[in-house]
Recover the amino acids of this structure.
């Protein structure tokens, strides 16, 4: 009962454009396939000591506590999933993204197979690596499906991948390269801008809707104390998208806010619900809502945004509401992922890099070492053809070294405080735990 639940899974590799030695490993969060999977999915999630963090002397409680939370909250979570069709569409979308990515690579003369590694539901990382090994893959591109890097999303998946990868002598021989972030790719930015414009054009005047970017939040301490680049990269994406839209003649106002806050610690602000109310009070009546950090639909877009935040908007006086879909299977988005893969293939022949700053490709062997996340010392502006990099003059602060597990110390502090005043245990025992997606301080998908 207290071990990770591992149901049977279908084959992991998507159909390839041809036989070859190249594999593309797609990393994502995962979600229950149906309502029966909700409880074991929640258990897998909260059994992860990096999600439900407890003091070391109480670590033996991690799995029992995960079981208590999963059992008590499963009925509420099932209601949420029932409202969006009975399960998460993320896996089916990710598999189809992999199939289309193979086709896009084949058009570029690259034969590859894609594999899916989910963090908390099937197919798990070890399943994907078993398929990689069985297929005789000799080169592996690791592609997290998170545009912006965070130590708690891409970083969490990469930590598990690194551990599994280098525990196997055969897999250790596989050359690999990681694309840790792609928030500033021109094709990605253009695809987002196109989808936003399509929604703006649904209004009588396409220039009037307020463009509302909603990104998954993080505890503020991740940014200020641990050097997580997520906030900088998210803000940069918004800037690039709006610059692209202005080039195309759209001058709409815009806002970036952060959703899914949970717990007593301060998170990135402004919060999505608060900002919607503020905009309504200021006279804004039309919103185009953009789930900026999500590339596939799931419960945080289909329920949290489409249902909860929509209700907030109606109450705030918003009369026009359009939500931009996640990028999903958009051809220009898939083509850009293919271009990103092609661009990093030569990197497998180069010595490993020693940092993961600004999304540069790195070796899996070093991506989770004690590396230095540099402070932002480059200003990247979106251009019609390429990105220009302008060096700032003067000294810039260097971020603290970050290891994935060290990153979790911020949540540990909050957990210790909740244990000290009894808040966590009281919340668990009397059933006042919020919906499961409100319990996840780290997830972007």
């Amino acid at each position: 009962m207290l071990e990770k639940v591992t149901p049977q899974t279908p084959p992991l590799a998507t159909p390839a454009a041809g036989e070859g030695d190249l594999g593309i490993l797609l990393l994502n969060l995962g979600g229950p396939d149906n309502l029966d999977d909700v409880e074991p999915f929640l258990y897998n999630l909260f059994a992860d000591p990096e999600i439900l963090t407890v003091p070391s002397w109480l670590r033996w409680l991690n799995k029992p506590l995960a079981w208590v939370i999963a059992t008590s909250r499963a009925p509420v979570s099932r209601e949420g999933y029932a409202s969006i069709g009975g399960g998460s569409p993320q896996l089916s979308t990710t598999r189809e993204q992999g199939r289309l990515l193979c086709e896009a690579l084949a058009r570029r003369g690259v034969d590859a197979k894609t594999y899916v590694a989910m963090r908390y539901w099937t197919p798990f990382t070890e399943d994907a690596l078993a398929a990689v090994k069985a297929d005789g893959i000799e080169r592996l591109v690791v592609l997290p499906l998170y545009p912006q890097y965070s130590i708690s999303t891409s970083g969490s998946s990469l930590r598990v991948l690194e551990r599994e990868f280098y525990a196997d002598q055969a897999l250790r021989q596989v050359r690999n390269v990681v694309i840790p972030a792609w928030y500033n790719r021109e094709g990605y930015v253009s695809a987002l801008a196109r989808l936003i414009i399509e929604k703006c054009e649904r209004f009588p005047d396409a220039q009037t809707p307020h463009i509302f970017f909603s990104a998954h939040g993080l505890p503020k301490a991740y940014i200020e104390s641990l050097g997580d680049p997520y906030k900088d990269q998210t803000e940069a994406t918004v800037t690039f998208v709006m610059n692209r839209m202005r080039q195309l003649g759209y001058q709409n106002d815009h806002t970036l806010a952060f959703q899914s806050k949970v717990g007593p610690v301060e998170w990135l602000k402004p919060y999505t619900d608060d900002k919607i109310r503020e905009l309504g009070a200021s006279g804004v009546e039309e919103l185009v809502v953009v789930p900026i950090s999500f590339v596939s639909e799931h419960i945080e877009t289909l329920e949290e945004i489409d249902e909860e935040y929509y209700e907030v908007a109606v109450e705030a006086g918003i009369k026009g509401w359009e939500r931009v879909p996640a990028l999903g299977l958009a051809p220009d988005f898939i083509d850009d992922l293919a271009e990103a893969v092609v661009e990093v293939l030569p990197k497998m022949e180069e010595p490993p890099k020693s940092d993961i700053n600004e999304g540069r490709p790195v070796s899996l062997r070093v991506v989770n070492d004690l590396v230095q996340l540099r402070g932002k010392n480059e200003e990247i502006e979106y251009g019609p053809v390429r990105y220009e990099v302008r060096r700032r003059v003067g000294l810039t602060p260097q971020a603290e070294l970050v290891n994935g597990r060290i990153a979790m110390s911020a949540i540990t502090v909050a957990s210790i405080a909740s244990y000290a005043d009894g808040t966590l245990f009281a919340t668990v025992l009397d059933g006042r735990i919020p919906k499961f997606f409100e319990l996840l301080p780290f997830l972007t998908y």
